[in-house]
Amino acid sequence: MKLIGSFTSPYVRKVRVVMAEKKLDFSFEQENVWAPETTIQQVNPLGKIPCLVMEDGSTLFDSRVIAEYLDTVSPVCKLLPSNGRDRTEVKVWEALADGVLDAAVLVFMERRDRAPELQSAKWIERQMNKVHAGLREMSARLGDSPHCMGVPYTLADVAVGCALGWLAFRFPEIDWRGAYPNLARLFDKLSERASFRDTVPFVA
């Protein structure tokens, strides 16, 4: 399998963490989807990463789709419960974490790509409200539990850990550690795992 992505994308990181936890062999191809010479649409018509190229040449895209598929490939470190209610709860956690990222990524791109006088303060505020609301909800759901789903380590933790890691990387001004000590404890615990240590985002 070949994973196409970047070292800064939190969605790509989620897939890389899953692959590491599942102990799956794959090659990694870095792709800048914003570069004029990008070829990403040859494998993903939406022009997004991550994209997983299978052994037969077929492709999977969207981190949630890829992660769910990968969990079926190997019995090692089962990340999605088979039980319907628990499985759905893990997917809700993932949607929540990805939703925080979706809003934060939009703000990052608005600030990066538009001149200050062209940026919409109202639109940025709307997106940041989603980020803060999502963080509050994650903290409330986590409570005093060691992991998102209680005792077991699941895809919910992977998604939340990648979201928090990207916020620390791109939005250091957001003091989620001080505001939500339980999220900080979870993130520190996750950061001790080899899968997280080996996938810390950086600009190549």
UniProtKB/TrEMBL annotation:
| Domain GST N-terminal stretches | 1-78
Top-level taxon: Bacteria
Residues in GST C-terminal domain copies: 83-204
Protein name (database record): Glutathione S-transferase C-terminal domain-containing protein
Record organism: Massilia consociata
